[in-house]
Amino acid sequence: MSVNENPRGQPRFAGPSRANTLAGMSLAFVMAHRVAEAGNVPVGAVVMVADQVVARAGNLRESLQDPTAHAEILALRDASQRLGRWRLEDATVFVTLEPCAMCASALVQARVKKVVYAATEPKTGAHQSVLRLFEGTATEVVQDASAAPESAEMLARFFQDLRQREREARNRQ
Ligand SMILES: [Zn+2]
Fold this sequence. Notes:
Elements: H1 18-36, E1 44-49, E2 52-58, H2 61-64, H3 71-83, E3 91-97, H4 101-109, E4 114-119, E5 140-143, H5 148-172
Parallel strand pairs: 3-4, 4-5
Antiparallel strand pairs: 1-2, 1-3
């Protein structure tokens, strides 16, 4: 997948082009699917600076047994390490699900310029669903509504499979 093409030659401070936005979000989906294979709730995040991917991660809460191992936290940490700075004011973060309160706070703390997410999270979403933690901050947040159904279906399938496996395990006892 090429995320380096910038056909219209926008200035670098304009953030990713539409083509790179599509690439960033689809890479976030790749990360989500990857971690789901290990039993983690499928959520993926990608950090881009201008038109370059600097970090990508999936939610590893189950794999690491770490309540803070959400995709956004892991991606921010990796991006900061790679760039050698905690201020990510030139970064755009793509995430397949509306960030929770912990991740919203981390994204604001990192001074992330822009967050683009796919599906809303009605129980924990901190952009518009439950809380509005980005209001009055320097971080711009938009929902990519065109990517929302894919994320919602991915999560629904994951929980359906999980319930199926739990039923089968009970029936074997
Ligand atoms: Zn989170």
